[in-house]
Every structure is written in structure tokens, then in C-alpha cells.
Design brief:
single chain; alpha/beta; TIM Barrel; five-stranded parallel beta sheet; 10 helices; globular; binds zinc ion
């Protein structure tokens, strides 16, 4: 059985900090190596611009996708704003010689212009919609992001939150996580995220998140691949 592993590479918990790149990412990459996992990393263009060598390094083993330039809510963007976010990032990845054909919108929030913008920019697929299938949407392949059950997305954040109950969930065709979820010291965020959500997001983070994730990978005998490999 094959499933897709996806990683959204972004700033630490809605801050402007990038400590997760030093504190977590090397460990995550060796964990993937050890378990034969090839993932798709959806990377912010602004992050790639500041860390070109790191992105090229990840691209040697994994697939790189685009997560927009800044971590902004695409549902609030005009057609022009959408194009700016996509093309600005595309230019960064192109300048690094990293081929990028997939996109995931920040917060999984899209708008009606996105697919046309992606197509015009030469992208092949998107993975921002919720659902449980892969289908062709006007020439762009949509890898829908599945849920364990309604409202509980197949991400490490929900898996940690509902642990150990989540151990009984069946393995989805796609899973997602953020390296910052493994951070030991979580920076205080000035984001407008409701307090309860912030608090819930921190349940079983850090060291506990590693234990839970390791168990999830070991107990489910699945070949984890990137979006590109899955096709
Ligand atoms: Zn994100």
C-alpha cells in the first residue's frame, strides 16, 4: 500500500521566526531517510529565498512544491494578488534550479482564480481542497486532503490532539505535518488564532510529537511517497 507524505514548510507557529529549520528539520530528514519515506515539501517562496541551500538539499531526496510566497489567506486575494503569490515563488524555485509542479494554499484556503493562475504558471497539480480523491479539475490534478472523519483532517496536528484515540484511525492515502509541531519551545504567536485553537495545537507537541509520529510510522506498514511518485 502506498500513501503520500506531505510537509508544509513555513514559519514557526505563525510567527516570523524559522527556528524549526535548525531545531527540527535535520532530524525530520534523517527520520525520513531511516524509514525510506519520500515526501512532498510544500515550501513558502519567502522561506526558500532566505534558505536557498537548504531547499536545494531537500530537493535532492524529496519533491518540492509551492506553498505561496507569504503565508497569506488566498481566499482574500484578487486574481492579481493570487498571481503575484504564485509567480514570485515560482521565480525563487526556478532560480534555485528546483522544479516545482505542485501547489498547496496556506490554511488550505483557495479562490476561484487559483487553478487558472496555476495552469498559466505551468503547475500540474494542487493539494488544497478537502476530500478523499485525486481528480482532474480543469487541467490541474487535485490531490484532495483527506479526513480521518468529518472535521478531523489527516494531519499530525489532529492526530496528536486525539492521541491515543487516534491510534485506531486507518491510514489515509495522504498525511500532512509541519516541522514546527516538533519544536520543544513554542514561540508565542501574535496571530489572531483563537486561544483555544492555539492551546489545542500545542497538545502533545515537541518530544511527545516525535514519539507519536514514530509510532504512527512504525505501526502502519505503508510505503510513504511524494505526490509525484504517487501518480
Ligand atoms: Zn501553511
Amino acid at each position: 500500500m502506498k500513501s503520500i507524505m506531505t510537509v508544509d514548510l513555513e514559519y514557526d507557529w505563525e510567527t516570523k521566526e524559522l527556528r524549526n529549520l535548525k531545531e527540527v528539520l535535520p532530524k525530520l530528514l534523517s527520520f525520513f531517510e531511516k524509514h525510506g519515506i519520500r515526501a512532498t515539501f510544500f515550501v513558502l517562496g519567502s522561506l526558500a529565498e532566505k534558505n536557498p541551500r537548504l531547499i536545494k538539499e531537500i530537493a535532492k531526496k524529496h519533491e518540492i512544491g509551492c506553498h505561496g510566497f507569504d503565508h497569506v489567506d488566498f481566499s482574500k486575494l484578487s486574481e492579481n494578488g493570487t498571481a503575484v503569490q504564485v509567480l514570485k515563488s515560482k521565480r525563487v524555485f526556478d532560480s534555485l534550479g528546483v522544479r516545482v509542479t505542485g501547489f498547496r494554499a496556506p490554511y488550505f484556503k483557495t479562490n476561484k482564480h487559483l487553478y487558472d493562475v496555476l495552469k498559466a504558471a505551468g503547475f500540474d497539480y494542487d493539494s488544497s481542497e478537502f476530500g478523499k480523491r485525486v481528480y482532474n479539475k480543469d487541467g490541474i490534478l487535485e490531490f484532495q486532503v483527506p479526513s480521518f472523519f468529518p472535521l478531523v483532517k489527516c494531519g499530525l496536528s489532529f492526530y496528536r490532539l486525539l492521541y491515543p484515540f487516534s491510534k485506531s484511525f486507518s491510514v489515509p492515502y495522504m498525511f500532512y505535518l509541519h516541522p514546527h509541531e516538533f519544536m520543544e519551545k513554542i514561540p508565542s504567536s501574535k496571530s489572531t488564532m483563537p486561544f483555544l485553537l492555539k492551546w489545542l495545537g500545542r497538545r502533545n507537541a515537541g518530544r511527545r510529537a516525535w514519539q507519536i509520529f514514530e509510532q504512527f510510522i512504525k505501526e502502519n506498514k505503508v510505503k510513504w511517497v511524494s505526490c509525484g511518485d504517487y501518480l
